[in-house]
Amino acid sequence: MAEQDIKTIYEQTLAKMTDLTDRQKAVLRAALKLFAAQGFEATTTAQIAAEAGVASGSVYKHFNNKQGLLMAVLSPLFQGTLMTVADEFIDENFNDEYLSVEQFIKAIVTDRLYFISNNFQELKLLFGQVLANEAFKSELIEFLKNQLNKSAIVEIKRMQTAGIMVDLPIDIIFQLLFGMAIGYFGKLIAGINLRSIDEEIELVNTLLIRALKK
């Protein structure tokens, strides 16, 4: 399992954006770091400027206002970074034939729960805005639907045909698999952290194997 780090992939996304100056990229990088760590409302443009090593006035010069800066941060985060993360997840976890339901579930659960744990602050910022922005939300849903249709459904149907996975509707299987990850993310947001990430993964694996193994 390749460990995915949103900050690293975001940096790679910014590097490809030739329409931005180095100073603008520094501001976006600093804004992402502070928005994720402190929250949007608690972060001031003066803090962002200091973190980026630029004059305070240059932040508004390039991005008009704080809300405009947030949108400038989120656009490459959503359209570049998140799409790269999703592509890598699909390629790594759904392009091989699994020998057992246990192997399949452990790969998916371990990958996604570690990803959420390691990138929690950035994900909280991103999905808070996705829920508030219909355009981002629609684009994300369409992208994930297309990606899952191409590979995940094929592998699940293969395991059902092979008689190793229960014959539940595909949407229910997705709900079970990804609902666990969403639930874990929700617990972190609520500050409910009752066990280590490894203990969490083991418990989720056990529950899903019982639910999906034929």
TrEMBL record:
The signal peptide stretch is none
| Pfam family, any one | TetR_N
- Keyword Transmembrane listed: no
The HTH tetR-type domain sits at: 21-81
Q: Which GO terms describe its molecular function?
A: DNA binding
Q: Which residue ranges carry the DNA-binding annotation?
A: 44-63
Alphabetically sorted, this entry's keywords are: DNA-binding
Protein name as it appears in the record: Transcriptional regulator
Which species does the entry assign this protein to?
A: Weissella oryzae (strain DSM 25784 / JCM 18191 / LMG 30913 / SG25)
